[in-house]
Amino acid sequence: MSQQVEQFFDNLWNDYIALTPSAAKVHQVLGQGRDIINDHVAFRTFNQSPVRLETLAKHFENMGYKACGDYKFEAKRLVAKHFEHSNPNLPKIFISELLVEEFSDELQAIVKQLVAQIDANAVQQPEFMYSGTHWQISSSDYERLLEESEYAAWMAAFGFRANHFTVNVNELPDFESLEQVNQTLKTAGFRLNTSGGEIKGSPEVFLEQSSTMADHTTVRFSDMEKVIPSCFYEFAKRYEMAPNQLYTGFVAASADKIFESTDARAAQADAQKD
Ligand code: OOG
Ligand code: NI
Fold it and tell me: GO molecular function: any one (predicted)?
């Protein structure tokens, strides 16, 4: 792995744990001091020039990543792609983008005004992938986005950075099952995303996933500060499709629920059901 690529992932990780202090605790609880191998890192964006999925993907293609899978999320009005590298030590990359034109004129106007503030040259730099927001937004615009799309609101508050890292459970020496990982996390005090059940997917689709509910952090909006959900940690266990051949793709039905790990309202609605 080149030094630039290593530095890129170090910087990406450092930005992520600054917003997600519980990620460091996850490593302590699951790794007990040993290194944790990540299955993938996920990014979010808007389908607006100059920050379209295809443009952001170039940073990874320049590192040697190849596009491998396409996904569509009708209800959330999102599409996504995943990318893989021939070096098995590099995490897969999952990038989604919001189909902005499928929302109200008001949402479109807010998003376009945010994106217009981005310097197109900045997008060409690899550092863009952990550069955060490039705009000011009021708390009322944030709330307005939240009514239509939790994803749009998250993007407006946090911008361009890792939305989550994902522990590769197959490579955790002390754990056999994802259930055991979840149990250990709950005992340590973490709240898991229960949308669609704690474990999304199954051996039949060759992938099981779970995630924590996002940490909360103080965001400075143009008019006030607010404490809102930031980033989360995910856990993935992959199964063999053929002898010695682990499934490397994603499962749209499961991913659809993982997106809700930043949604405080989904979590609340869920808690009221119990
Ligand atoms: C991505 C959710 C999907 C997965 O592994 O299926 C996902 C997001 O929340 O941005 O990460
Ligand atoms: Ni993920």
Answer: dioxygenase activity
